[in-house]
Design a protein that fits this description.
This protein is mainly α. The protein contains five helices and no strands. The radius of gyration is 18 Å and the shape is elongated. The mean pLDDT is 94.
Length: 85
Amino acid sequence: FQIMSIIISDEILQASQLTPDEFCQEIALHLFKTGRLTLGYASQLANMHRDAFRQLLKKHQIPIYSYDVEDFELDLLSLRALGRL
């Protein structure tokens, strides 16, 4: 287990017009949205409780779950195999 620190200069932070907490939240939102972090890890990065991070996702209109056409087709195959369709 390795711990990594990232230093963000005051200049970059000021240019972003975000507080340090908001900056971390924005990074966590992006990494969650792109599928790079799970909800648990993204909430840790944002330094928020999972429920609070879920609310932040909702505020930014980012879905918690990703369900695409491929997932739907697999579900249909499974339901047909079980005789439920």
